[in-house]
Amino acid sequence: MAEQIVQWEYRVLTVGSAFSGAKDEQIEATLNEWGLDGWEAVNVYAPTNSAKVTLVAKRQLTAAARRLRSMPKNY
Hints:
Layout: E1 8-15, H1 24-36, E2 40-45, E3 53-60, H2 63-70
Antiparallel strand pairs: 1-3, 2-3
C-alpha cells in the first residue's frame, strides 16, 4: 500500500510598520489566533534593516481547504 504524502498550506504575514515596528502583543495575538485555527509557526524573522516582523506558519492541507481554494474569489 502506497504511503500518502502529507500536503501543507502556508500563511505569511508581516506585522509592524516602518514607523512603529512590530509590538510583542500584536505578534502574540496573531500567533494565538492562528494556533486556534490549527496553524503552527515555522519561522519568525525580521527583514534586514526593518522594524517589521514576518510570521510564517503551516498546517496540513485538508480536503475542505483544497475545495475552498479552488473556488473563484468575488472581487
